[in-house]
C-alpha cells in the first residue's frame, strides 16, 4: 500500500519565506513608513491576522495554531508624504503552545516626490518577534525588534522596538495597544532631512457583533509620543462566504515633523478580497491615496501558506485517506488528544463529517485493544459508513479483537506474510501460594466477600469455584460478542464462523476461502486491489491522514470540554511509580479537577476511567472532588476497558455514567493484603528485632503474619470502608441497600449487565460521553468548542507538533 504523504505545509511555509528573502531588493511593492510596516488587509491593532500580525501588533502572533508564511507585494506605487513608493514583505510565524515566534523581512523604495529621500533610494526592515498568550487567550503580549537599513540612511542602519498587547474579555470585543519605534533614534537621510523615528502609540478597538468572524469592525487612533493625534483608521471585514471575505480600510493621517509641525495630510482607502483555500490563501486589493491635491493608487497581493486551515472555500481533505492504528491505543497520554485513544475516535468522527473524503483505509500494525475499545472502534466505523464513507481494513496480522473490529468494515485485507489468529477468548489464573510458601513468604487476605477474588492469585494454588464461574461468564460473553460481530459483518452464521475458525483458517489464503477476509496482498499491491474493488480511482493515491487544525473564528477562550484520563492503579499522593506503570494519583487528579472547576472556559468535564481499583481513600478523594466539580459544571463519566472496585467508586461521583458493552465494572467490594516475609528472612539469615509501644505498633510489619486480634481489627476496619462504599453507591445510584447487596460483594458485571442493574446510565463510548457533556453544558452543536485532554504533553511534544502540524485541539 503506497501512501502519498500530504506535503507538509510547515516545509512549504519555510520555503516560501526563504524564497522571499532572496527576492531582489528592487522588486517594488508597498507603501511604507519607517515606524510602520507594509499595509495589510487587517482590521487594525485589535484584530491582527496571522503571521502579518508582526507588522500590525506583535501580540497577535499568539493567535496562530500552525506555522504560517505570508508574502506580499504592491504591484504599483503609491507616493504620499513620508511614504515609500513600493516594496515587498515576507512574514513567518511559528507557535509553541502559549508562546509564538515570528520573523519578517521588508524592502521599501522611494521616488522623487518624497521629501525625505532621493529618487531610487530604499530602506529595508528586518524584524524578530515573540508573543505570549495568557489567561486562556484572553490576554496576549508581544514584542518585536526592528532593524532598519539601506542607502537612504546616513549611517546605514537604525534599530527600535514594537510593543503590543491584546485584551479579549469575551468573544465579540477586542482591545489592542501598540507602541511602535520605541527606542529608535533620529537619523538623517543622505538628502539631509531628518527622519522622525520617535515612538508612536496606537490604541484600537474591534468588534465582532455576531461572536465570530462573520463581521469584524475596527477603529484605531495613533499619536506620536508627546504630540497631537496623527491618524485615525477605520476598518471593516465581512465574511461573505466561508473562506471569502471583503475588507475595507479608511485612514486619515497628518504628516508631522519631529517638532509637531504639520507638513501635510493624506487620506488612504484600501479595499480587497481575502480568499481561503484550505492551507493556502491569497488576498487581492487596491489602495488609493490622496495627499495635498495629488492622488495615486496601487494594487496589493498577499499569499499565505500555513499548516492550519482558516475559513476556506474548498475542503482541505483527500478523497482517499489511510489512518494508522499502531500498537496499544493508550487511555492516558497526550494533551489535545495526541497519543490518546480518544484522539483516534475524534479523528474518525471528523472524517465522518468531512464531505471531501470518500475512502478510509484503517492500517493496523501490532494493534492491541481492550474489549471496550473494540466496541468503540466498531461504533466509529459504523458512523463512517452511515456518513457514506467506504471503509477498508488492512493489517499484517489479525487477532480475535482485531477481526471483531475489521468485520465492521466493507473489506478486509491481510499481508501475504500475515495470519488470521482469531482462536478464541481465554483467561489464565496463576496461583502463587505454594511458590511463595517455598521461599518463606505468606499473604493474609481480608475481603468482602467471596466474589472479591483479586487476592486469590497470592493466597491460593488453584482457582476457586467462584472465580472460575466469573471468568467463564466473561469469556463466554466476549466470545458470543465476537461471533456476533464477525457474523454480522461477513454475512456468515455465528455457528459457521466458529466452525471455520475451528478448521484452522489461519493462513491468509485459507481465511479468504473461509470468507473471513477478502484479499491477501503486499502493502504495495493492496492499492491496486482497492482499484479492482472500484474503491480507488485510476491515478488516485492514498494520502496519510493528518488532522487539520482549524483557526478559531472568535476571540478569547473557546468553550472547552476537558477529558480527564484516569488510567491505572488508584493511589494516594501524586502518583508516579515504576517506569511504564500507570497510576492515578488522587492528589494530582483532585488538584486538576479543582482547577477545571474554577476555569470559566471549561464548560464540562468527561472523566475517562480505565482502572481496576486501588486505594479506598484515594478513590473517595477523587469521588468527592468530582461531586464538588459537578456542582459548578457537569461531570460525565466514560468507562473504558475497566472501571471496577475503586474505579467504580470514583465513577459514582459523576452526574451520568456511560459504559461500553465490553467494560468490566462493578466489583463493589474491598480487600486488604498483608505480606509476611519472616520465613524468607530466616532462610536468608536475616536477623529482625523490633522495639515499639502502643497496642498496634507493629500491625504493619512485613516480618510476620497478622495475629488473630490484628485480623479482627482489620476485619472491622475494612467493614467500615465497605459500608462507606455501599452508602456512596446506594446514594448516587438510588439503589436500596438490600438490592445493592445482591449486586455487590465483589461481583463483576459487563457494561450491558451494569446498565440492566442500574449501575450505569447508558451504553456508549467516549464520543457519546463528550456529546452528553456538550448538551449538559449548553454548548450548541454548531458552536465552536474544543475537546482537550489531561494529562498534558511535555513541552518537547508541543514543539514537535507545532513544527510538524499535528496533534491539535479537536474543534467541534
Can you summarize this structure?
By secondary structure, this protein is of the alpha/beta class. 26% of the residues lie in helices and 34% in strands.
Structural class: alpha/beta
Strand order of the largest sheet: 2-3-4-5-6-7-8-9-10-11-12-13-14-15
Low-pLDDT runs of 5+ residues are 5-36, 78-82, 112-120, 152-156, 186-196, 798-812
Give the helix tally.
20
Percent range for helical residues?
A: 25-40%
How large is the share of residues in beta strands? 25-35%
Overall description:
This protein has 812 residues and is an alpha/beta fold. The chain is 26% helix and 34% strand. The protein contains 20 helices and 36 strands. Strands 2-3-4-5-6-7-8-9-10-11-12-13-14-15 form a 14-stranded antiparallel β-barrel. Strands 25, 28, 29, 30, 31, 33, 34, 35 and 36 form a nine-stranded mixed sheet that branches. The chain has a seven-stranded parallel sheet with strand order 1-23-17-18-19-20-22. The longest helix is centred in the middle third of the chain and has 26 residues, at 465-490. The radius of gyration is 33 Å and the shape is globular. The two termini are 32 Å apart.
Task: Name the features.
single chain, 812 residues, alpha/beta, 14-stranded antiparallel β-barrel, 20 helices, globular, disordered C terminus
